[in-house]
Amino acid sequence: MSVKPPKRIAVLDRLDPAQGFGGSATPALINQALTLAGFETLDAAPFLELTARRPERLPDAWVTVSDHAEHQDAERFCHSQSLPHHYVDPTLSHGSETSPHQRDNGSNHMMIAPFLDAGPCFAAQRDAASLRQNLSQRHALPVDRSWIFLSIPSGCETSALFSTFETLSRLYMLDWNLIVSAAEEHHDQASQLLPGLSGKSRYLLQKYDVRERIAFMAASDLCLSVERSGGGVMDLLEALASGLAVVANKSAETEAIVENGVTGRLSAAGNPASLSNDLTFLLRHDNFLQSYRGKTREQVAERHDIHVAARRLRRMVTREDDLC
Fold first, then answer.
1. pTM, two decimal places
2. What sign does the CA torsion over 281, 283, 287, 290 have?
3. Contact 235, 151 (CB under 8 A)
4. How does pLDDT run across 74-112, given as a tens digit for each residue?
5. β-pairing, 108-111 with 101-102?
6. Which residues of 180-204 are buried (b: 16+ CB within 10 A; e: fewer)?
């Protein structure tokens, strides 16, 4: 007898907002991928509040988004209602991406690679040359210099921010423009630090302007990311999807995104000299820079596009691999 595939998926968010590839946006990305896979998603939390009676209409399956597998309230509910229970770990804090596998408690587990909807970045990258010419004229940025896109994510330490600007100040002998995209909490601080980079053309992106961010990213050559204490790495995914080589400090999160020596360079964490050397190398060796850039979009399309994630999630919840 064939098993009827699920249509309605209850999604329970049990993730620390600081964790996951998209930080607090991670559950929304999981919902988006499940919707793309053909499912209707709904918030699972209200079901756990209905302890005294059976809900009028149950979902067909349950997905808990978490970096650990001990949520007994969800497990008890799914067991009592005979619902397939799936755990999705989007943090990669326990290792690399895995296929769905069943645990002793009967729930199904999968670690999923970071992903994004790469469409807007891919589209902007196709117009990179014209975007660069246009932005160069509008903001007085020399078009023939290397363009460094500096991403300052939410949650980065102040000391890391100062260290990054100190690293950039060491590159005064090289010609480059600096484009800065800072999370709201760091915007004013970045504005105060920029004048210290004398002799360089620099531009600080306006707050909340997503279209401007994508345009400047596509027009740039490489992305430099400030060291983070944990959480989202969406800025690195966006940079790769925009065709940029990435220079970042090595960590479990950045290793999940950037292939060292293939799509960018991962520097020794907490070592400004290592970061400076990697930046200098790419700015002086255009052949390596262009080689890295030539592989970034392909890697995103193969590993990190939301359509790839949607197929993996669909296989998990529909039992197509006979593992759930």
1. 0.88
2. positive
3. yes
4. 998 998 888 999 999 887 766 677 777 777 667 888 888
5. antiparallel
6. bbbbeebbeebeebbeebeebbbbb
